[in-house]
Amino acid sequence: MSEHKHEHHILSIKTAGIILGLLLLLTAITVGVSRINLGFLNVAVAMTLATTKALLVILFFMHMKYESRFMQAIVFMCFLILAIFIGFTFFDVAYR
Amino acid sequence: MSNSTLSFWEETGNGRTGIMGWLTSTDHKRIGLMYLYILLAMFIVGVFLGLAIRLELIAPGRTIMDAQTYNTVFTLHGVIMIFIVVIPSIPAAIGNLVLPIQLGAEDVAFPRLNLFSWYLYVGGTLLALVSLFTGGGTPDTGWTFYVPFSEFTTTNVSVAVIAVFILGFSSILTGLNFITTIHRLRAPDMTWTKIPLFTWSLYATGWIQVLATPVLGITVLLIFAERVLGVGLFDPNKGGDPILYQHLFWIYSHPAVYIMILPAMGVVSDIIPVFARKPIFGYKTIAFSSLMIAFAGSLVWAHHMFTSGMSDTAVLIFSLLTFIVAIPSAIKVFNWTATLYKGSISVEPPLLYALGFIFLFSVGGLTGLILGSAGTDIHVHDTYFVVSHFHYVIFGGTGFGLFAAMHFWLPKYYGRMYDKTLSKVAFYILFVGFNLLYFPLFIIGLQGMPRRYYDYLPQYQDGHIISTVGSWVLALGLAIMFYNLIKGCLKGEKVNGRNPWGAATLEWTTPTPPPLLNFDREPDTSRKPYDFKGVTPDE
Amino acid sequence: MSNHVHKDYAGAKLGMWLFLFTEVLLFGGMFVLYSAYFHEYPREFHIGGKQLDVVIGTLNTVVLLLSSFSIAAAITYIQQGKKKLALIYTYLTIGAAFIFLVNKTIEWRAKFHHGIWPDSPHLRELSHGENIFFGLYFLMTGLHALHVIIGMVVLSVMVYFLKKDVINQQDFVKLENAGLYWHIVDLIWIFLFPLFYLVL
């Protein structure tokens, strides 16, 4: 039906497989690191790893790597706003 | 005019006629009008509740209702006016009527989703009404649903918050639809710098709707969960922190006031140049300041919480940030004034209401600075000063913006003109009534009259009497205005030609009333939206 | 008649992403609460986290990651015109969602067994911080599980569309958007998992 052909990036199964492997590896690392007591660093490490995993999902599985600059910008903005909501709440919570 | 094209009144687009032709129509104009009818009906309900509050307060002690009824009446007034009237007013109703045509599009990006949003709106409204008559009584929490009271009151808060959730969802989907429409359905050559400022303001609004409203969604769901499950997230007896509720609530509800005011600013930006016959001063700064307001508005929510027991650091930071929002708002006011300067002004009703907006909004905005600065806020927090400030911004701002929009655009969609003299009379009565009603509240607020109180000391009575009398004047003005608009739309003089005001945006190049798919010829996008060279009002 | 059905691929995508933003911020409100309470009760959150089953949590993480892969693969296959493989991988995704829910049920039932549910007498005896931890645990994983269920329904509709060739090699944006929704469900779990099961 659609009369004009779009240029779509097709994620190859191989790439998807590699990403899956990386995600599983990062999950293993996340669990492993949580067994070691690093104090406050544990939270930082866990969140960094989770963010990395999230990035992989967004960039590859959700095709964001191949989307326009505008789409990338609004996704960034969405997470920035969430970070502001959480961060600014800490102006209160952290200084009580 | 041209009889080759049927208007959207005659052609439904789905083969159905009569009431079903409306209820199943995905035409943005029909949906816009359906929003308008319901929200104006609810507005009148809200006005009556407001009048009842004012009448109760004309004298200390019991006047016409008992204290519990009073609590439910001001709660209802707030919930109806905020969630059912003001938030969808300009974006959903006027936005649906105007936005696609201003872009040169045939409809919004997702017409069926648009209709679905309307059904959600109706569903949410009905559910809100259901909450009045079921359960343990009408909600009495105020529109803010503050915990812990909202968790434990026996009145029917659970149903009310679900209604708010549904209304919020409707608002989200409308914002989503408009953003996509603006990105994807602009006519060829309708570049970003040719988009009319009303549509620009809806773009900024759409982003707030998409990014902030979900937080309201989860907040009201949490109230519901607390009432049903009793987790204790906001209950100090179980380790919860009520102040966190206030954070969540205002993370949405502060940006929400920009959902309310930004579209009204857009309306004014579209009206002023038409009646000054001059290109708008600083098109790009107005468009950009809308985005600035949308963004900066998300950073300042905790200025509603200076006396809540929040940390002093937060008070300082949020007070400072609050002043940033004043800048883009002021930019707009200066640009409107500069547009009027040396313009060839014709005082038609839409301009009059738009000027009313500028004046009342400025009063509201400037008193907002007193509230935004923590030192002064401590003194006037939770007094009638806040009530007055808020009504100057939302009623004087969004309300008058909506009235201006109706006087500006409705003749286009109904193809009939109201009585212009009568609408000016209505305006002056409204304007006087408005200031009589709300200005004394600033004074008694400064003197310490607390908001939401059923009873008060005799020293505040003078202010309350003036205010209540003002509410009657205001109601009279509203009655005349609505009478005139309704009569004009139904039986008024036929509008001859496409462009009764001599405006330069695309909606005035379509037939009056517009046909189902809006245009009977390719929209001419070569012209800038406020370039009036060679454009004259059709007589 | 409105026979002007314009297939706007980019518009559909943009609309879906905007919707996903609302999902992110819906959960975002809960994350605001989580971080504030974690700041207030770090020790109690640690004690609470120890009581959750890391094995089931890890297993469910793996299941969701696999399902994310399989829906991504399904989209790749339909783009390559391999309808049968696309169908199989969509089924696999639904299957993974089901396994996730089974695990979740087992986990919740075990908690109920230990007398832990919202506002339970046992929880009321525990410290405030633990009550909040489990409260958040039930609300956040519950809301997430609700999204898993919605995702299953959406994916089932996609199976129907695939069978009816409504989704095909030329027109697959519906499946892509369903996939995006499913990835968001996975994405939220990626954060829920360390926040609840691995807190220190």
Please summarize what this structure is.
Chain A has 96 residues and is an all-alpha fold. In chain A, helix 1 runs antiparallel to helix 2. Chain A has helices at 13-34, 40-61, 69-93.
Kindly describe this structure.
The complex is a heterotrimer of chains A (96), B (539) and C (200). Chain A is built from three helices and no strands. With 96 residues, chain A is mostly helical. In chain A, helix 1 packs antiparallel against helix 2. Chain A is flat, with a radius of gyration of 18 Å. Chain A starts with 12 loop residues before the first helix and ends with a helix. Mean pLDDT of chain A is 90; it is low at 1-5. Chain B has a single domain (18-509), classed as Up-down Bundle (Cytochrome C Oxidase, Chain A). Chain B has a two-stranded antiparallel ribbon. The longest helix of chain B is centred in the N-terminal third of the chain and has 37 residues, at 67-103. The two termini of chain B are 12 Å apart. Helix content of chain C is 82%, strand content 0%. The longest helix of chain C is centred in the last third of the chain and has 36 residues, at 128-163. Chain C starts with 8 loop residues before the first helix and ends with a helix. Chain A: The chain crosses the membrane at residues 12-33, 39-61, 73-91. Chain A: One of its GO terms (cellular component) is plasma membrane. Chain A: This is Cytochrome c oxidase subunit 4. Chain A: Keywords: Cell membrane, Membrane, Transmembrane, Transmembrane helix.
State the domain count of chain C. Answer: 1
Instruction: Report the CATH superfamily of chain C.
Output: Cytochrome c oxidase, subunit III, four-helix bundle
- Helix and strand succession of chain C? HHHHHHH
Rg of chain A, nearest Å: 18 Å
> For the terminal residues of chain A, how far apart are their CA atoms?
61 Å
The shape of chain C is: elongated
Question: What is the terminal separation of chain C in angstroms?
Answer: 62 Å
Structural class of chain C: mainly alpha
Number of helices of chain A: 3
What assembly state would you assign to the polypeptide chains in this entry? heterotrimer
Q: Share of helix among residues of chain C?
A: over 70%
Shape descriptor of chain A: flat
Portion of residues in helices of chain A?
Answer: over 70%
CATH architecture of chain C: Up-down Bundle
User: Describe the biggest sheet of chain C?
Assistant: none
Low-pLDDT segments of chain C: 1-5
Strand content of chain A: under 5%
Q: What amount of the residues of chain C lies in strands?
A: under 5%
